[in-house]
Amino acid sequence: MNLTSISAFQDNYIWVLSDEKKRCLIVDPGEAAPVLSALEDNQWQPEAILLTHHHQDHVGGVAQLRERYPQLPVYGPEETRDKGATELVYDGTRMTLLGLDFQVIATPGHTLGHICWYAAPWLFCGDTLFSGGCGRLFEGTAAQMFASLKKLNALPADTLICCAHEYTLSNIKFALSILPEDRALKDYYRDVSELRAKNEKTLPTILKNERAINLFLRTEDSDLIKKISKETKLQQSEHVFAWLRAAKDMF
Question: Is the link from the previous residue into 73 a cis peptide, with omega within 30 of 0?
């Protein structure tokens, strides 16, 4: 199985999983043109579209792709019913696509109906978990997002985090503003800066690495709690998370 990321808009990634028979799955096609081009260039035959949530930069290309491939099924959560989904899925839904066993994981926070698609080792997590960060709380609460991230953090350490935006450099800059002496963060910032200077992608990332550098997964970290508590007296992980998310919004 091969994983490909297609760049879209300013910083979106549309993910494609393809097999040796040239069959493929398309995840969150925010626009159709780059996908259609990749399908032609690689001689891929799409088997399905997978959606994580209803935002336009994730669903905007569905209609045009379905015009080209009228029988193409589109799987998505309830909130994508009017965005082109032909088959609705729910937390715990399991299905086999391209011979892979997919599990749907409900991850409310960024939107109320946001889901992730997991088929080991790939996690297509939309705008829930980013490298070094997490999604903004447009519809859900900090408590919901905190619970969603705990679900994802419980997956195997070798899980590949296939998120939908190239936000890594900005996320690590924020993390360093909180913990400027953290060695893991400093090393990752150097590596990411070098990649972005060459216009190379930082994704996918590995969950094991995210546990070391993503402050939103480190809410029980003693150094982080000590730093935040100087200002807020916060100790509980969920409250630390909420403080971090609010601080990132203003960064």
Answer: no
